[in-house]
Amino acid sequence: MLDKTIKDLEKVIYPLNAIAQRIAMVVLFILMMITVVDVTGRIFIKPLYGAFELTGFALAIVIFFSLGYTQIKKGHIHVTFLVDRFGKRTQAIVDVITYLIFFLLVALITWQVADYAFRLHVGNDKTADLGIPVFVIAVISSIGILFFAFTMLLELLKAVQKVVKNE
User: Fold this and answer.
1) Which of 66, 81, 88, 129 is most solvent-facing, going by the fewest CB within 10 Å?
2) CB burial class (10 A; 0-12, 13-18, 19+) of residue 114?
3) Which residues are listed as membrane-spanning (predicted)?
4) Conformational region of residue 63, where left means phi above 0, alpha means psi within -120 to 50, and beta covers everything else
């Protein structure tokens, strides 16, 4: 049963994170173009108006939309010099505990960022230069963090599966 649940979740979570990663790649390219235009403008004519705000927004999207995909590809740093000395079952149990704590933490962060987005919307907060509603970037960020939370849930289930199967 756990195998089927994991496979079903993979069919949803992997494509969501792949799409988010592609969006992050496009936004990173746009960020690069904004920076080039801004720096070139400073040298020759005048800087790009609102470049600082757009850069901040773009960085948030790139970071939060890349987290889940990076986790799927095992691109995050793991410090395992102590855990590697344990047996396979003990390592799996440590993984379950670690992924559980991390999943709960990421779920809490998702909730708090979404709540912050709601408060920004109610307060009608806007950026100083361009007047962009700040809640929009908070909502987009919470979506990226939610995808990461889904990925952490999947990793938790895989770790539980290893413990149950005694791998």
Assistant:
1) 81
2) middle
3) 12-36, 48-72, 92-114, 134-157
4) alpha
Among 110, 101, 114, 99, residue whose Cα is nearest residue 152 = 99
Question: pLDDT tens across 2-26, in order?
Answer: 899 999 999 999 999 999 999 999 9
Residue reference for tokens 């009608």: 124
Vertex 118, ends 117 and 123: CA angle to 5°?
Answer: 95
Half-sphere exposure (CA, 13 Å, Cβ side) for 94?
13
Residues listed for the chain: 167
Instruction: Name the token pair of 123.
Output: 């307060």
Spell out the alpha helix ranges (H) of 45-133.
51-72, 88-123
What is the C-alpha to C-alpha distance for residues 131 and 41, in angstroms, rounded to an integer?
Answer: 22
Cα 105-56-50 angle, rounded to 5 deg: 155
